[in-house]
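Lab manual, section 2.4: Encoding a predicted structure.

Procedure: take the sequence of the chain (175 residues), apply the prediction step described in section 2.3, and record the output as structure tokens. A sample record is shown.
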Amino acid sequence: MNYFQLFDIEVSFDVDLNHLSQTYQTLQKTVHPDRFAHASSQDQLLAVQKSAEINDAYQTLKQPLKRAEHILTLRGAEMPNEQQSFSDTSFLMQQMELREMLAEVKFADDIEAAFEHAQQTLTQEYQQLLDVMHKQLFENNTAANALACDNLRKLKFYQKLNIEVDRLEDSLFDD
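Recorded output:
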């Protein structure tokens, strides 16, 4: 299913999140279970299914990485399996260095400064890669889509690192 069509918006990585949210609310009102309280059980079931579909579409389109993956899927790009190994050894080395940097934060003389530096580094690298993928999605050709798939995979690594950053922050600064 094309979630962009469901929300009647252009297939694009750039989405107006306010408009998306408003459209979501409007769509959900049309299939709200209360509207089908006196309908047949089949119509009630269809309304629940349509509501779930709208929820899935909204969750996908409002999150940049899920949106990019949906766009690439619509284009027929072959998404690499997340379990598949990376051929980009420099990226893997960089990921190991970032993990080491995070592990060393709790042993730093100035924990707050070390944490801020780690967080800033991750945010900056994530944003740079996201910008590159955005340009590749805009190009929309076979080669650019393949590169966008690869970068999407890399961005998912950063997303996992950001979860580790959140856990680290909780362990260091929760009193």
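Check your result against the sample. The longest helix spans residues 142-173.
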